């Protein structure tokens, strides 16, 4: 019974095609849920991207991040578009975290969270600096002002700001994904396929 | 029911154009905002190009609305942060009340803000005047993988549904005694019970959705048809060619100036 | 193809899911001729869904495993062809309509066209097919609507239209009635009959035996993956083997069997499986039998019926109405203080919709209450007022004496537990035990009491064997039982169940019915919101009917008078036993 109907067009089978849009919606909706219902000072707007990366691999993760930002631009804030590349890289890293089997150890997930945060800060810094002049209109702009006042360049301050807030947000994101993935039925994990089994 | 993002059901000039023409135009405008030598190029293009187009497409009011709502905080922050804390040795300042604004900082802020108007405004105008499915079809016919268009359209429609689901999860768990009010720690404890059912339920759904995708032959090999036409008249093809040439000329001219 | 050739043919098909110890289907042989409506019944986990997936190729191409034997559908060897090819021969429609709407198209018309587009059908032919499919489902007038703006029943029709546009000669439906209300199921039955008359072969898996009896040409009963009965509904659905297997019988058969035990249904008459058959059979034997008062209610322990007195005016229908049993008499009148009191509650949503318009209600201890009403009558809004999820725009809601405006939902949860209809919104733990533990833990019971409550709830819902399993590894019907156990364990004086019987098999429904009776015997109360009128009638005693945000009826099932019956019938219909009594 080897005939597989899940044809690999562009590397995406029907399961990926089904999961990715849901994950994108999760990104958008959870960001709102955490802030509106629980009123916690974190964003958690890349849980879906990290989840897809871990379950389906780097390519699917990248597509999730990329399109999530396009959608964000489509529906709410066109200014999110330039950061699509950052979201894609977050998905790629998560794909490798899955292949590495990171979800089997919480501290590995935390490490990947920190790593993702630093990489994200590094890639978004030039975009933030050159397109947005270092600011986003959110509370974190105070950090940018502080770093510049301490003598940093616009680019330097953008990176420093990201390096302070991104690793925290991404570590929490990874730990939440860890808690969810270890509680998934094995049958489902096998269906998605990227995550290295223990 | 608003499930089509920023798209507005209006009749006008941009609504009749092929999405590729609009995308090329946006690219040209963004290029011009960065390449033209004056700091206020972006603002000028907004007034001279985007706003007249918005008028011709009957979306001016919501265009300005959304643009202001998304950019105003950024621009204000820009002026404050870069005006007051811009790095560099240039000592020139402008006093506004008790605050000493740096001249170079204000210039930087204005240039950036003016470019932002186009970087955000041009895509916004496209989204407001192009039904997502037309955009996807036009791009797919030009070689974008079908799966990318599929994902984009489905995600767009799923967001309201997932929102409802999230509200349902919050109700179900609060009914089980989950406290979502109280101190920070108390609320942080609520994250997993609220996030988990949403995601696990979604993963289970994904399996059913995958079956539905195959049932509808989306993954079947072979030629596909489109029910509707996205017209692309010769005029528009020529217009795109002209715009590409203009963009090329801008880049060449800018490079030449830089070398000299 | 000549009519005699079967369209679906299984020869000794056995399938074992990858990683499973036991086969899900064992030696199934089956031939379905063209145009037949063939129903598959069985308990949860008996293999119904696997059979549906096998006939459409999802087993073994999507759900992998070991398949032995032959499966031929419309001349295609299922194992040898990918799903992408099989979709031209057979279509699968699942019970969860929401996940079957592609979401890639923005109108009903385009959604139906999506499949043919993917098959590369020429444009003029797509238009023809879509027009035909929409017409067949009587939804041409909805063509420009967003698929997500349709009602549940309309979405179900849309999904079927989308399948039909692929022009398959065989249609397979897996529990198509789960999300439908009674008018919706009737519509669906009419549609499936019309399709079969046009030559389409239909195979469907289903729990609602009364519906199967009305609709199917043929019934196949599965137990543990093997066929235990196969034949026309009249034979199979009244076959004792079904009750031994825990599948049960349709209500008309149960009622007639009870009559037979009491000597009011001739032993030589076969048991009827449809209401029409029951009425007819009773009419035929009416004159020859004697009515005995005080007959026993099915499953009721020694409770006496007494409708003789209340319906003595309907002399000519005596034999009919004595056949229908009466709900048991009330438990001693509810002792104060009441659990929930609503006083002149109005509720207006931010959208401006006025969902409740002056509802006053007292829920006491030991009550068994049915909350009925059409979609949009305000049932969900009312339920959310019982634990403070929603607070009255005007009027007051008291939960255990506390005004919900001055307390939190988490505190109300000590007194009122609610199990919502969509079980997925609730389940998140790794094992059934952890899931059930979550509620009592939140309520702050001491650890040993939490464990005791968990154990009791797990046993009450017959989940002992699954306690260490992942809730999502259980069949959907048992997942619902887990969700109920999780709220039951919170030990609240009032338990609210929203559509608890949806998707449950006969054994599950019986379990639930028993549980509700036990709770009320312990002076705890249960309020059920349901479209399943027969379940409500057999298990509950008080009936509250909501209409347009107001209480149209608040009485007891055993005190229904002619006006009340008309009111009920107009809004939600009548339970079989009440209908029987009043349509001689």
Give the beta-strand count of chain A: 0
Oligomer: heterotrimer
The biggest sheet of chain A amounts to: none
Number of helices of chain B: 10
Going across the major beta sheet of chain B, what is the strand order? 1-2
Unreliable residue stretches of chain A:
1-10
Instruction: Return the structural class of chain B.
Output: mainly alpha
| Residue share in helix of chain A | over 70%
Number of helices of chain A: 8
Strand content of chain B: under 5%
Output the keywords.
heterotrimer; B: 260 residues; mainly alpha; two-stranded antiparallel sheet; 72% helix; flat; C: 584 residues; alpha/beta; 6-stranded mixed sheet; 23 helices; 20 strands; 35% helix; 21% strand
Record the SSE blueprint:
The complex is a heterotrimer of chains A (about 200), B (about 260) and C (about 575).
Chain A: H1 14-36, H2 47-56, H3 58-75, H4 84-100, H5 106-132, H6 141-149, H7 154-182, H8 186-192
Helix pairs in contact in A: 1-2, 1-3, 2-3, 2-4, 3-4, 4-5, 5-7, 6-7
Chain B: H1 13-16, H2 19-35, H3 41-56, H4 60-85, E1 93-96, E2 99-102, H5 103-129, H6 132-141, H7 146-174, H8 184-189, H9 191-215, H10 234-259
Chain C: E1 8-17, E2 25-32, E3 37-42, H1 48-55, H2 58-61, E4 65-73, E5 76-77, H3 83-86, E6 90-93, H4 108-118, H5 123-136, H6 152-164, E7 170-174, H7 182-197, E8 201-205, H8 209-215, E9 218-223, E10 226-231, H9 233-236, H10 240-244, H11 251-261, H12 275-285, H13 307-310, H14 318-323, E11 340-348, E12 354-363, E13 368-372, H15 379-385, E14 394-399, E15 402-403, H16 409-412, E16 416-419, H17 432-442, H18 447-460, H19 476-488, E17 494-498, H20 506-521, E18 525-529, H21 533-539, E19 542-547, E20 550-556, H22 562-571, H23 576-582
Parallel strand pairs in C: 3-8, 3-9, 6-7, 7-8, 13-18, 13-19, 16-17, 17-18
Antiparallel strand pairs in C: 1-2, 1-4, 4-5, 9-10, 11-12, 11-14, 14-15, 19-20
Helix pairs in contact in C: 4-5, 4-6, 5-6, 17-18, 17-19, 18-19
């Amino acid at each position: 019974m080897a005939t597989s109907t899940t044809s690999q067009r562009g590397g995406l089978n029907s399961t990926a095609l089904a999961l990715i849009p849901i994950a994108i919606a999760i990104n958008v909706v959870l960001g709102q849920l955490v802030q509106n219902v629980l009123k916690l000072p974190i964003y958690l707007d890349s849980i879906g991207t990290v989840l897809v990366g871990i379950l389906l691999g780097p390519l699917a993760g990248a597509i999730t991040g990329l399109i999530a930002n396009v959608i964000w631009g489509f529906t709410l804030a066109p200014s999110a578009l330039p950061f699509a590349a950052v979201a894609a890289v977050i998905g790629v890293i998560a794909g490798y975290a899955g292949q590495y089997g990171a979800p089997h150890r919480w501290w590995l997930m935390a490490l990947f969270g920190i790593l993702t945060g630093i990489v994200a800060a590094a890639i978004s810094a030039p975009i933030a600096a050159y397109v947005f002049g270092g600011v986003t209109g959110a509370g974190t702009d105070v950090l940018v002002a502080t770093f510049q006042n301490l003598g940093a360049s616009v680019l330097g301050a953008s990176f420093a700001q990201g390096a302070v807030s991104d690793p925290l947000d991404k570590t929490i994101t990874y730990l939440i994904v860890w808690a969810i993935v270890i509680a998934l039925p094995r049958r489902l994990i096998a269906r998605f396929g990227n995550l290295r089994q223990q | 029911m608003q499930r089509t993002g920023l798209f507005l059901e209006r009749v006008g000039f941009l609504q009749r154009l092929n999405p590729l023409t609009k995308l090329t135009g946006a690219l040209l405008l963004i290029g011009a905002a960065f390449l033209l030598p004056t700091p206020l190029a972006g603002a000028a293009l907004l007034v001279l190009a985007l706003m007249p187009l918005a008028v011709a497409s009957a979306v001016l009011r919501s265009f300005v609305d959304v643009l202001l709502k998304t950019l105003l905080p950024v621009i204000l922050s820009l002026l404050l942060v870069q005006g007051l804390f811009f790095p560099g040795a240039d000592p020139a300042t402008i006093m506004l009340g008790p605050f000493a604004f740096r001249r170079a900082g204000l210039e930087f802020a204005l240039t950036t803000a003016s470019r932002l108007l186009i970087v955000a405004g041009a895509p916004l105008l496209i989204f407001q005047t192009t039904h997502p499915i037309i955009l996807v079809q036009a791009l797919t016919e030009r070689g974008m993988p079908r799966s990318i268009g599929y994902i984009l359209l489905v995600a767009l429609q799923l967001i309201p549904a997932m929102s409802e689901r999230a509200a349902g999860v919050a109700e179900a768990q609060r009914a089980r005694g989950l406290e979502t009010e109280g101190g920070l720690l108390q609320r942080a404890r609520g994250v997993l019970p609220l996030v988990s059912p949403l995601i696990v339920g979604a993963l289970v759904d994904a399996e059913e959705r995958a079956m539905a995708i195959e049932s509808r032959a989306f993954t079947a090999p072979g030629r596909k048809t489109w029910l509707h036409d996205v017209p692309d008249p010769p005029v528009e093809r020529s217009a795109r060619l002209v715009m590409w040439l203009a963009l090329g000329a801008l880049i060449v001219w800018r490079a030449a100036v830089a070398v000299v | 193809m000549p009519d005699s050739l079967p369209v679906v043919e299984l020869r000794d098909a056995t399938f074992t899911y990858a990683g499973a110890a036991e086969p899900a289907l064992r030696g199934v042989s089956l031939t379905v001729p063209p145009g037949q409506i063939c129903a598959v019944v069985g308990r949860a986990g008996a293999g119904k869904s696997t059979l549906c997936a096998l006939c459409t190729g999802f087993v073994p191409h999507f759900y992998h495993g070991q398949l032995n034997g032959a499966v031929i559908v419309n001349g295609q060897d299922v194992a040898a062809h990918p799903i992408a090819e099989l979709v031209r021969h057979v279509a699968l429609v699942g019970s969860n309509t929401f996940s079957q709407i592609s979401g890639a198209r923005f109108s009903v018309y385009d959604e139906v066209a999506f499949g043919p587009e993917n098959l590369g059908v020429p444009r003029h032919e797509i238009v023809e097919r879509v027009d035909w499919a929409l017409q067949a489902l009587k939804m041409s007038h909805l063509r420009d609507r967003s698929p997500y703006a349709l009602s549940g029943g309309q979405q179900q029709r849309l999904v079927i239209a989308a399948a039909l546009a692929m022009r398959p000669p065989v249609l397979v439906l897996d529990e198509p009635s789960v999300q439908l209300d009674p008018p919706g199921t009737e519509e669906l039955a009419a549609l499936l009959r019309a399709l079969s008359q046009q030559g389409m072969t239909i195979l469907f898996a289903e729990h609602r035996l009364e519906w199967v009896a009305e609709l199917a040409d043929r019934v196949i009963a599965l137990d543990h993956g093997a066929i235990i009965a196969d034949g026309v509904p009249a034979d199979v659905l009244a076959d004792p083997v079904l009750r031994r297997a825990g599948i049960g019988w349709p209500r008309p058969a149960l009622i007639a069997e009870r009559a037979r035990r009491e000597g009011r249904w001739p032993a030589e008459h076969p048991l009827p499986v449809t209401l029409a058959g029951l009425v007819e059979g009773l009419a035929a034997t009416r004159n020859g039998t004697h009515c005995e008062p005080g007959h026993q209610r099915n499953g009721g322990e020694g409770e006496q019926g007494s409708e003789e007195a209340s319906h003595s005016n309907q002399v000519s229908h005596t034999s009919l109405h004595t056949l229908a049993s009466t709900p048991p008499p009330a438990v001693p009148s509810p002792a104060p203080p009441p659990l929930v009191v609503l006083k002149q509650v109005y509720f207006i949503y931010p959208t401006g919709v006025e969902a409740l318009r002056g509802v006053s209600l007292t829920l006491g201890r030991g009550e068994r209450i049915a909350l009925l009403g059409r979609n949009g009558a305000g049932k969900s809004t009312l339920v959310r007022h019982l634990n403070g999820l929603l607070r009255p725009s005007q009027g007051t809601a008291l939960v255990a004496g506390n005004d919900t405006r001055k307390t939190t939902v988490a505190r109300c949860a000590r007194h009122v537990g609610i199990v919502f209809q969509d079980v997925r919104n609730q389940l998140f733990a790794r094992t059934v035990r952890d899931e059930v533990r979550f509620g009592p833990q939140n309520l702050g019971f001491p650890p040993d009491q939490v464990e005791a409550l968990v154990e009791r709830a797990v046993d009450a819902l017959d989940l002992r064997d699954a306690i260490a399993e992942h809730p999502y590894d259980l069949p959907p019907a048992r997942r619902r039982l887990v969700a109920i156990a999780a709220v039951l364990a919170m030990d609240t004086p009032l338990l609210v169940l929203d559509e608890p019987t949806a998707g449950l098999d006969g054994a599950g429904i019986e379990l639930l019915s028993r549980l509700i009776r036990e709770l009320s015997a312990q002076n705890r109360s249960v309020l059920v919101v349901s479209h399943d009128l027969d379940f409500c009638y057999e298990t509950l005693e008080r009936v509250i009917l909501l209409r347009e945000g107001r209480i149209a009826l608040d009485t007891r099932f055993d005190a229904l008078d002619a006006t009340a019956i008309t009111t009920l019938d107009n809004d939600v219909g009548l339970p079989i036993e009440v209908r029987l009594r009043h349509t001689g």
